[in-house]
Amino acid sequence: PRTLDTKGNVARIMEMQGGLQGARELYEAVISAEEQQLGPEHDGVKDSKSMLGFTLRKLAEEAEKNGERAEAAALYGKAADMFEPKYGKNHHEVRQCRAKARELSQA
Fold it and tell me: Could you write out the three-class secondary structure of 20-73?
């Protein structure tokens, strides 16, 4: 788990420096390994998923700015899916991402 913590920290740094796609890929790898080692309901897995959620939300915002509505909608939906295990379905991050996904899916 310490190696996974380090990889999660590297992903966070990548995100802060604007490397959103690289951060996403690293978070996804960390989550996959954590789920195998710790189980999907472990608090550490939920923390990693929420961090991935923030990265996905940023990617969705970029896609939306670029007029990529379908991609943005999918990313907002995935972000909500990552936030929900830690925060619950009624948390503002989950609700906002789901609302944006619905909004962008219409039209």
Answer: HHHHHHHHHHHHHHHHHHHCCCCHHHHHHHHHHHHHHHHHHHHHHHCCCHHHHH
